[in-house]
Design brief:
The protein is an alpha+beta fold. It has 3 helices and 9 strands; from the N terminus they run αββββαβββββα. A hairpin with a 5-residue loop joins β8 (about 130-135) and β9 (about 140-145). The chain is extended and about 70 Å long.
């Protein structure tokens, strides 16, 4: 039996996909189950943000465009960059044994996602060495000033 060129292409594609799956899942088990070493997502995996609201500022999808209320004068590429940054953001988790005081005052950042019925609310805290974000799984994640500049409209 001989395979055509198209047949060999399909074999090659499926081989590469199988290798990608092997690498994807083998990397998660090498750490011995200790997830604090791995970066955590701010929002659920594959989240599609429909709207985002914080401090009386809202960014929402209107058809294929993004709009802000109140109008902030940001271009469509700038708004897309903010939404994409939230959809793909990963941060280093705070070790569970670290106690952080004064987390009483935080900024709520609410997201409506395409794949969830209920909104997801994250809480941003300012601490001495930067910022903490409580993600959708109530994990505390470290954020520095440069990351925050990309995530919030200025």
């Amino acid at each position: 039996m001989q395979l055509s060129r198209r047949g060999w292409n399909n074999v090659l594609i499926f081989t590469i996909l199988a290798m990608m799956l092997i690498f994807q899942y083998s990397g998660k088990t090498i750490g011995g189950g200790n997830t604090t070493r791995y970066y955590q997502t701010a929002l659920p995996l594959n989240a599609i943000v429909l709207s985002m609201q914080f401090d009386n500022i809202q960014i929402q999808r209107v058809g294929s465009q993004l709009a802000t209320k109140p109008e902030l004068g940001l271009s469509q590429p700038q708004l897309r960059q903010i939404i994409k940054a939230w959809e793909t953001a990963t941060f280093k988790p705070v070790a569970e044994d670290v106690v952080i005081a004064n987390l009483a005052y935080g900024i709520n950042i609410s997201f409506e996602l395409a794949n969830l019925a209920e909104p997801v609310t994250l809480i941003l805290y300012q601490i001495n060495s930067g910022y903490l974000l409580q993600n959708w799984q109530s994990q505390l994640l470290l954020i520095d000033e440069s990351e925050l500049q990309v995530l919030l409209p200025r």
